[in-house]
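Q: Joint fold for the lines below.
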Amino acid sequence: MSNPDFLRLILAMGAVTYLPRMLPLVLLSRHTLPAWFAEWLGLIPVAILSALITPTLFCHSEPRIFTFGKLELLAAIPTLLCGLKSRSLGWTVIVGMFCYWGLGLIISR
Amino acid sequence: MTILTSKIRFGLAAAWPICLGYFPIGLSLGVLAQKVGLMPWQMAGMSILVFAGGSQFIAVAMIGSGASPLAIVSTTFMINLRHLLMSSALSAHFPSVSRRFLALFAYGLTDESFAVNMTRFNQGDWHRYSALTLNQTANTTWIISTVAGVYLGQMVPPGAAGVDFALTGMFICLLVFQLRSAIFVTTALIAAVCSLLAYLWLPGNAYIIVASSLAATTGLILKRLVPKRGATHE
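A: Joint structure:
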């Protein structure tokens, strides 16, 4: 990929990323949202995070098939416990990476 | 002025877990980018203009596999469309704030900054300048770590020390932070099931928006039904 092509690519990526971040903040902040909509939005973060994680833990990506017992799922258990116990983002990421790495070594042996 | 300084300091203090989370992820993205042949300035440009971890990982992987720019941009759009919902949720906390501020603040809206800012706004001790500082601190860390990763790329073997799990680990922890009551746990479980089915049946990254909208809607219906039933019961 040439440099101008790459620049055009990241500019377009930046635009399509920025607009959904900016438009609701700028357009909605001056209005009071209806209660049901505010409540719905309150449930969005937990739903998004869960939706982001689950396929990583239970599915192969190419082709997309369900699987049980992936390394990611095994490492997710101590990671989840660490998150619940420590409430620390930094520590949980480090413990998760360590478990993933360690379990990978044990399983491949 | 000192009040403003203290607000900025609050923002910096709250940003460190995000920075600690971003650093290994940024490094690993940089390493990956180096493996597919990106230059440090290209990584810096992407991190400055896009600033969205998950989509940058996928974009780098797609560049590596020779995907078309149109496919990369539309994938980026689909993945980051979830910020539409986060931006809407945050908007309630910025009444009568200038559009210029919001336009700048929106640039730093990520899953992580959203989760932390939203928590702090709900606790009530959070100022918009603290929130902006948090966003920009995370942003700076992200840019530095991704570029550092490109330089480190030559030295790090692929998959070293579990870096592949950094993003998942961070999302798991942020999910834990969100589990504030039974309805949140229920919504998370519904989202998990919907996401699995949508991932297996729908193309691309549509599963994120489909599953999270469905789960939030079901969660809202349950939340509205359950207290009513409790009130009429006996």
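Q: Anything notable?
A: Residues 83 and 111 of chain B are 8 Å apart (CA to CA). The two ends of chain B are 58 Å apart (CA to CA).
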